[in-house]
Automatic annotation (TrEMBL), chain A:
Pfam families: WD40. Coiled coil: none annotated. The lineage of its organism: Eukaryota, Metazoa, Echinodermata, Eleutherozoa, Asterozoa. Belongs to the WD repeat THOC6 family. Signal peptide: none annotated. This is THO complex subunit 6. PANTHER family: THO COMPLEX SUBUNIT 6 HOMOLOG (PTHR44411). WD repeats lie at residues 146-178, 179-220.
TrEMBL record, chain B:
Residues 37-56 are annotated as: Disordered. Residues 578-660 form the Death domain. Pfam families: Death, efThoc1. Residues 37-49 have a biased composition (Basic and acidic residues). It comes from the Eukaryota. GO terms for cellular component: THO complex part of transcription export complex. This is Death domain-containing protein. PANTHER family: HPR1, THO COMPLEX SUBUNIT 1. The lineage of its organism: Eukaryota, Metazoa, Echinodermata, Eleutherozoa, Asterozoa. PROSITE patterns: DEATH_DOMAIN. InterPro entries: DEATH-like_dom_sf (IPR011029), Death_dom (IPR000488), THO_THOC1 (IPR021861).
Length: 359, 665
């Protein structure tokens, strides 16, 4: 067949070769994709303003949008648990995501980027605006680890590798304040509900409480590793997560030191939540309980008095992000992500119902 | 029903007319009806009897007519819509009539079923109260045999009529009545071949629900119209919901588990459900609080599950719901594990299946234990109940043998032990001459008859287990010798086993044992030192006894016990020596005949000796020789001297026998 010199045959041969080449390429692509999936970590999640979508960002700089409504519906199957749309947003990892009424804001290595929800829903995401950090290290831009958005005055707070917390006026797109004082990189930023204050926790082992209106020194400094109740020298002094309750009476933080509840007025630790071998990475107040996750494959639910409520197993062996959908009652789920491409969804917060697949 | 009554009465009429043309059935029925009516109002059954005898006709004919009259009256009452006390009064009357023998025993039951078939459930309820009260009447001999089938049919009809969800109490009353009415081993209510109630289908929402989002829509654009969803409904985990309710089908029909594919689905669903249960810990605090508030909380009971998906989240958080489901698992596993006679040959568990069942059962029990309130107790109770269920199952496997022990059996069993008791002594007496005693079983008999005389058997030589002092202490004595140069710690006296045996032996065999205890010496400090002391004492005794032993070996063998501490050489004198016999012969002379008489020689023998030997001396010698031969070992000095004494030959005793010292005389 081959030595028949027919031009048509020849072109056929070429196309076969081409197909083979393409196949080899796609195979390589597939292997790469699977390997990436194996080593994927989902650091950040946020819920869309209407409460119907979950947005997640991973360590490869990809943002994926999942439909919570579809995945909860009766005819849900493996396909509906895959992202509706996913797009490459960063070269490096994405560490923080927040949503505002109009924008999805992402942060990681490099600029803070805003994506209009309307574009995202139309599966045509594009960067609406971006904010660049003022300083840069010798090895490129500093990373941003945490974001917090204040709806009242439309201000975004960010904290990261340069040990500073910035306040950005989203109206004008300018940097309003710089809150400096931390001596190591910032892990987490948490806003107060009513008053213009915010708390940040950092690798230096301190939680600093700032008055957001001025750029002065921190108002208070909490150092959990200096308190016997919660100090765990074997795990270090870093504080990985901080959260303030809606009544602005309690603050919960943890990391190297065990998770502890602080009375804000007296700045004293009241109870510690004892989860052995778990360094909390994320904590949040939900209704009358505290939900935390960290270096163990469990999501912990605590009563405010320190009693453990439950310990619910999850897929990821390290938990980095918890997202409770408070926007919509019918979609009120808890989403848990960590060092796995699967994002666990808890309908009843007591057991894992299913997992969304970040592929 | 009235129609039915009319037809049956018509049938009876024609039957009666054909069978007995002389008997005026219609008339009799009419008169009976009137008299029943009368008797019912006055409550007099005797009148009815008189009436019945007044009418001509055979007994059977009159019975049929009266039965029919009763049913007519009942029909009238029902048509008139009378109260239940009228019904019961009539039935009572019919019962009396049965006892008087004027109507057939089935009549009261026919009347009852007529009533139950033609009145409303409310009145049935009241009439049934009457039935319950008269359970003893129905069980009486006259009524039971003819009535039991009627009653059973009546009750089953009634049960079929009642609603299973509305009339649960009435249904239960009927069941209880049946249980009281029928004997324990009545099998009519038994699920003999272990069938499943397959109609009990639990339906749930398997439909593709109208999700708030159609999948087609969202592929185009993700923009969603607001307000489409009703606010306030919490999210539903449809996946688990379906898996969960799909399990109910396995509980309904467990044989499905033996089908490979279905088992795989079952296994997957079970894992998902139990995983959710174990992950979702129920709130202990609220449970214990409610327990404190209402310790005797009224238990709610549902005969069916509510399967709405909207309730599912609440159900997952409900302790009693969880218990129901976990118990269902246990019951299913119990069935799968059990040997049930009616299982098919292919319905066998594979190894994987049994392994799964085993581990899952453990998980289920663990879950039950942590389900408050009082989970531990609940789990234990369930375990107990399920073990009882096993008995029930084996009973059914054995073909439902009667629980009631039959009477002849009981009478047979009782006299048996009595008869045996009486015969035991007799048997001994009967068998005594044969020296063979029947012990009941051949082996026991053989063992017993090895040596029937127990005391003799005990005295047998091979039953002497106690060693002699010398044998036992041989080693200890050797070691006690300083010349042996044995270290203190290696001596046998330090061995506790040796010491214990030694003490026991000393107590039995040695005179020193008690001496030391009563002596005024200081008490011994330790057993080894005491033993050592004893050993030295024994060693001192030892040489003498061993020498004497050599001398009197034969004697020792014969009378071992006498030898101990006794006078040696006593027995020696009992032996006649040849010289003594010669001396006696020499002195006997003519007197040998008198001695021979004393030595139990007969006249004939004496005559023989005389004829064989000529000389007197020879004769005496021959006689003594014969005596020695005849008596053998019994020919002792004592015997001889006794005989000499008897024959008045005291001088010979003195001159010959007393020379050698002691005699007993």
């Amino acid at each position: 067949m081959l030595h028949v010199c027919d031009p048509l045959q020849e072109s056929c041969c070429f196309s076969l070769w081409f197909q083979f080449f393409e196949m080899a390429l796609s195979l390589e692509e597939e292997i790469r994709r699977q390997r990436q999936q194996m080593h994927m970590t989902v650091y950040a999640q946020c819920i869309s303003p209407n409460g119907k979508y979950l947005v997640a960002g991973n360590n490869y700089g990809t943002i994926a949008v999942f439909s919570i409504t579809a995945s909860l519906s009766a005819e849900a199957n493996k396909e509906t648990w895959k992202p509706l749309v996913s797009f490459k947003a960063y070269d490096g990892a994405i560490y923080a995501l927040v949503s505002t009424e109009k924008f999805l804001i992402s942060a990681g290595c490099g600029d803070i980027k805003g994506w209009a929800w309307t574009d995202v829903f139309q599966k045509n995401p594009k960067v609406s605006w971006s904010l660049s950090l003022p300083a840069s290290s010798n090895f490129g831009a500093f990373e941003t680890n945490a974001l917090a958005y204040s709806t009242k005055d439309n201000v975004l707070y960010s904290g990261g590798g340069d040990c500073k917390v910035y306040a950005w006026d989203l109206e004008s797109g300018t940097k309003k304040e710089t809150l400096s004082g931390h001596t190591d990189y910032v892990h987490c930023v948490s806003l107060y509900n009513q008053s213009q204050q915010l708390a940040s926790s950092a690798e230096d082992g301190s939680v600093r409480i700032w008055d957001a209106r001025t750029s002065g020194e921190a108002v208070h400094i909490i150092e959990p590793h200096k308190h016997e109740e919660c100090a765990r020298p074997q795990h270090g002094k870093w504080v990985g997560c901080v959260s303030v309750d809606a009544g602005e009476e309690w603050l919960v933080c943890g990391g190297g030191p065990s998770l502890s509840l602080w009375h804000l007025r007296s700045l004293t630790p009241t109870v510690t939540f004892d989860a052995p071998n778990c360094c909390p990475q994320v904590v949040t107040f939900h209704e009358d309980s505290i939900i935390s996750g960290g270096s163990t494959p469990f999501v912990y639910h605590w009563n405010i008095n320190g009693d453990p409520k439950t310990k619910v197993p999850c897929t990821a062996t390290r938990v980095f992000s918890l997202a409770v959908n408070t926007e919509s009652e019918s979609n009120k789920v808890l989403c848990v992500s960590g060092n796995s491409s699967l994002i666990d969804v808890y309908t009843n917060f007591g057991y894992r119902a299913f997992s969304l697949d970040f592929c | 029903m009235q129609c039915g009554l009319a037809i049956s009465s018509g049938y009876h009429t024609s039957l009666a007319k054909m069978a007995a043309p002389t008997f005026d059935f219609v008339n009799a029925r009419q008169t009976f009806s009137e008299s029943i009516e009368e008797a019912r109002q006055n409550n007099e059954s005797d009148k009815l009897k008189q009436q019945s005898t007044a009418v001509d006709g055979s007994e059977a004919e009159k019975k049929v007519a009266l039965d029919q009259a009763f049913r007519d009256v009942m029909m009238n009452l029902v048509v008139k819509g009378s109260g239940c006390e009228h019904f019961t009064a009539l039935i009572n009357l019919s019962i009396e009539a049965v006892h008087l023998g004027i109507c057939s025993p089935a009549t009261p039951f026919l009347l009852l079923s007529d009533v139950f078939e033609s009145v409303t459930i409310n009145i049935c309820d009241k009439v049934f109260k009457f039935v319950e009260e008269r359970v003893d009447t129905w069980k009486s001999n006259v009524l039971y045999t003819s009535g039991k089938n009627f009653l059973l049919r009546m009750c089953n009809d009634l049960l079929r009529r009642l609603s299973k969800s509305q009339n649960t109490v009435f249904c239960g009353r009927i069941q209880l009545f049946l249980a009281r009415f029928f004997p324990l081993d009545e099998k009519s209510g038994l699920n003999l071949i272990s069938q499943f109630h397959l109609d009990n289908v639990t339906s749930y929402n398997t439909e593709q629900l109208d999700g708030p989002l159609k999948s087609e829509d969202k592929d185009e654009t993700m923009e969603v119209e607001e307000g489409e969803m009703s606010a306030g409904t919490s999210p539903i985990d449809y996946l688990l919901y379906r898996k969960f309710w799909a399990l109910q089908d396995y509980f309904r029909n467990p044989t499905q588990c033996y089908i490979k594919d279905k088992w795989r689905v079952f296994q997957r669903n079970t894992k998902a459900v139990l995983g959710a249960f174990s992950s979702l810990k129920l709130d202990d605090v609220t449970a214990s609080k409610s327990q404190d508030e209402t310790p005797t909380e009224k238990h709610v009971f549902f005969s069916k599950y509510l399967t709405s998906e909207k309730l599912y989240d609440l159900q997952l958080n409900d302790a009693s719901f969880r218990r129901y489901v976990l118990l269902q698992f246990l019951i299913l596993f119990q069935y799968l594990n059990q040997h049930v006679k009616f299982k098919g040959a292919q319905q066998v568990l594979t190894d994987d299946m049994s392994q799964f069942i085993k581990t899952t059962t453990e998980t289920v029990y663990d879950l039950l234990k942590e389900t408050s309130p009082r989970g531990e107790e609940f789990a234990k109770t369930i375990q107990h109940i399920l073990s009882r269920e096993e008995h029930w199952n084996t009973w059914k496997n054995e073909g439902c043998q009667s629980y009631i022990r039959e009477k002849p059996d009981a009478t047979q069993v009782q006299p048996k032990p009595r008869a045996r008791k009486r015969s035991l002594g007799e048997e001994l007496r009967i068998n005594a001459p044969n020296k063979k005693i029947d012990m009941g079983s051949p082996e026991l008999t053989r063992l017993w008859n090895i040596c029937p005389d127990n005391l003799e058997a005990c005295r047998a030589e091979n039953r002497i287990f106690i060693p002699t002092l010398e044998d036992y202490f041989e080693d200890a004595i050797e070691q006690a010798d300083p010349g042996a140069m044995i270290e203190q710690e290696y001596k046998v006296v330090n061995n506790s086993n040796f010491a214990w045996c030694a003490l026991r032996l000393l107590a039995r065999r040695s005179p020193y044992f008690f001496q030391t205890i009563t002596s005024t010496q200081a008490p011994v400090k330790s057993v080894p030192s005491y033993l050592e002391m004893m050993v030295t004492k024994l060693a001192k005794d030892m040489p003498q006894t061993s020498i004497e032993e050599l001398k009197t070996e034969a004697v020792v063998e014969e009378n071992d016990d006498l030898l101990k501490g006794g006078e040696e050489g006593l027995e020696k004198s009992n032996f006649l020596l040849a010289e003594e016999v010669d001396a006696v012969v020499a002195r006997l002379g003519e007197n040998w005949k008198t001695l021979a008489v004393e030595l139990n020689f007969t006249d004939e023998e004496i005559g023989n000796v005389q004829t064989e030997n000529l000389e007197v001396k020879e004769q005496a010698r021959a006689m003594m020789a014969a005596w020695l031969v005849k008596e053998g070992e019994q020919a002792t000095r004592d015997e001889l001297s006794k005989a000499l004494l008897e024959s008045g030959l005291n001088d010979i005793i003195e001159s010959v026998l007393s020379d050698n010292g002691k005699t007993d005389l």
